[in-house]
Amino acid sequence: MVLQSSFKNCLQLSCILRTPKAGFRDAASGGLIIQSLSNDVYHNLAVEDWIHDHMNLENRQVLFLWRNSPAVVIGRHQNPWQECNLKLMRQKNIKLARRRSGGGTVYHDLGNINLTFFTTRKKYERMENLKLVVKALKALRPQLNIHVTDRYDILLDRQYKISGTAAKLGRTTAYHHCTLLCNADKFVLSDVLKSPYKGLKSNATPSVPASVKNLFEEDPSLTCEMLLDAIAEEYAMQHQIDHHITLINPTDETVLPGINNKSKELQTWEWIYGKTPKFSVSTCFNMVYKDSVLDVKVDMDVKHGRIEACNIDLPEQWLPPALCSELVKSLSGSKFCPTETTALSSTLLRMCPQDDELHSKWNLLCENMTMLM
């Protein structure tokens, strides 16, 4: 296989080994441990796709280790408006990514470890992978009270979730990935995984809320690097390979041909938002104008991330019906997105009569509409 050979040769030339003992040549069969040099969520998810699509895993198993700068990662069949606080994420510059596996939404930062176990579909066994993680942690800190649940989570002290699982099963290849909380920012985690959006109805896969805890809270001497090394050592022992970690640059086309196209695709609006299962919004909001309070009812159907149908119910005397109809008409077919809605409203405003009161009402209505997104 040409791509497999290219991957092998380039790793021998360009990758830095965290342990000096053995190179990629020694992992021709059995097992391989790879760690990403990037903290970019799109780059790392692209590596998962690349390995799944291009590597021959018939006689090899691969463990991929990676960490991300702040990001929220949703499952393949999830609704981002239902799962997280997009407005807060924009304010904090926290990225949103949609992975190709199922499962629930997770928050990543540099205090969170990600592990991806690649095998053939026949050898796929996520319970064994999680037991490996538990065994590694207990070898590092025997006093830790941790175990794997029937839901494939790892619990600390039988109540705090420190690891969640998701997977992708291809025709011949499979991967199982899981998180491990070491020292993540739990306050940010809690805030961004709390959706403020009201009136959403969707058949998208919902996340199951859980109490979480960092391993660092249990033992402040633990670091992400210690956990990564312990897991790599246990993996190497179980697969009878040398304990070393091969570092890769997930943007290097000589190592991973076509990788940057995969990364770009994962960053597109069409993938992150456009793959959202169809949902509806039915909600009310109050608008305060001068000394009066106005109740406005909005109903929208959203498909592939775009507004399919829209209705805005407000008193005729407050805003000319023709203007409101023009807004509804413009929204239909547009992205369910505050940036696009703001641009549309600005364009329509320029077509309005030069009336200060009318402009103030229009701006107020459009500001409230964008807050729904």
TrEMBL record:
GO biological process: one example: protein lipoylation
UniProtKB keywords: Acyltransferase, Mitochondrion, Transferase, Transit peptide
Main location: mitochondrion
EC nos: 2.3.1.200
Pathway info: Protein modification; protein lipoylation via exogenous pathway; protein N(6)-(lipoyl)lysine from lipoate: step 2/2
A single Gene Ontology CC term: mitochondrion
Catalytic reactions of this protein: N(6)-[(R)-lipoyl]-L-lysyl-[glycine-cleavage complex H protein] + L-lysyl-[lipoyl-carrier protein] = L-lysyl-[glycine-cleavage complex H protein] + N(6)-[(R)-lipoyl]-L-lysyl-[lipoyl-carrier protein]; (R)-lipoyl-5'-AMP + L-lysyl-[lipoyl-carrier protein] = N(6)-[(R)-lipoyl]-L-lysyl-[lipoyl-carrier protein] + AMP + 2 H(+)
GO molecular function: lipoyltransferase activity
Record-linked PROSITE patterns: BPL_LPL_CATALYTIC
Protein name listed in UniProt: Lipoyl amidotransferase LIPT1, mitochondrial
Naturally occurring in which organism (per UniProt): Anas platyrhynchos
